[in-house]
Amino acid sequence: MITVIEKLDGTRINLFDKGVLTADFVVSPIDLKTDSENISGRPGRILTSFDYGNRAATLNLYALADSRLDTITLRDRIAELIDGNEPFYIYEGVTPKLYGFQLPGEVSNRNAYEQSDTYILEGKRLLIYRIGNGAIKFSGLTGNRNIEFETYELPFWESSKTTLELSELAKEWNINPLILGMGIEWDEDYTWEFTSAYPIVRNLGNVPVNPRYMPLKITIKGDFPNGVTLTNQTTGESVTFSGSLTASDTLVFDGVQYLKNGVNVSYQTNYGLIKLKPGENQISITGGSLTSVKFDFRFYFK
To answer: What pTM, to 2 d.p., does this model score?
Structure first.
């Protein structure tokens, strides 16, 4: 099994290329956090709030040294890769074939661990940080290290590409593992850029996209002399801008920011937000003549 990590600056590292295999990567279900009240004279508890908490993960690394001296090199290399003080993204890898065995006459079983037909699941990644201090333990020239992590900020897997990045790739994502694990069907034509004032926006994740704590950027262009209202008819939520838009203007709802041509215009809005539920979201854009609308966000998975 092979694992790829990605630093916050975009640097990607295949651990196998550094001489480190992944024996196992175990991702736990998301913790649930609840608040409750006890009422005198009533059995049980009253649940007052219920939400997701953190998520734990354990990375079991396997290192094969060439010599006793190399065990020190591998120990330090793993520390350099994993033991930083900032979170990083992790991608899972799948090796369909079983590993081989040491052949007669071989002094090392390194060939048994050559990567073959390995797929990095490029479509989804998890943002984690290290919480455990387990040391690498060598038995002869083979070493194991179990490292405990927790998710950083959100406990969900997220798509490695945004919707607009996927649109730019067209169907090139079918020739690499971007499609794996994301619910993308090859026969479907996906787009998140529209000229219709009544588009259907698809959230391919299984978690609602909430712009209060997830990136969601909606860009509107058109002629709206008396303002524009964007409504998610599926959820009943809407956001309204009461100012005017001409064909040369650009209105952007970026998370909790409201921008016209890059200038904050929140005072001209109802401070509304729309979420995107999993599946299809029927959107309407009213108040004038729409030229184009773009929805840029990531998919999230439990």
So the answer is: 0.86
